[in-house]
Write a structure and sequence with these properties.
Layout: H1 2-26, H2 30-57, H3 59-66, H4 69-90, H5 96-113
Helix pairs in contact: 1-2
């Protein structure tokens, strides 16, 4: 029963993340992204938690997959891409004037929520 519940919740969370992410990608407006932020964050946390439980429940199966060289290579390649994108993102130069304005807008938005 537990696996069925995890699978359904994981599927819904995946759909929520994919749809909110796609909508934010298509609509570049900052205001729209702020509107989607609660959906994206909430289901992002859920997908991480549920994904972790899913991996733990299927750990032996995952280990058997990784014993096959093509699957292991795919996993290592994907991890390398993840590291590369993190490094690229953290080292990306952003316009300080734009960042200051975004921080001011964020502070105003946060103050209105209180």
């Amino acid at each position: 029963m537990g696996r069925k519940i995890i699978s359904v919740l994981l599927g819904v969370s995946f759909f929520a993340m994919a749809s909110s992410g796609f909508l934010m990608l298509m609509n570049k407006g900052f205001a729209f992204q702020l509107k989607m932020h609660p959906v994206h964050n909430t289901f992002g946390i859920l997908i991480v938690l549920l994904g972790g439980i899913h991996v733990l429940l299927n750990l032996n199966l995952m280990k058997s997959y990784l014993q096959k060289n093509p699957i292991l290579a795919l996993g290592i390649g994907t991890l390398c891409m993840l590291v590369f994108l993190y490094v690229a993102g953290f080292n990306r130069e952003l316009d300080p004037v734009v960042m200051k304005k975004l921080n001011e807008i964020s502070a105003i938005h946060d103050a209105k929520k209180k």
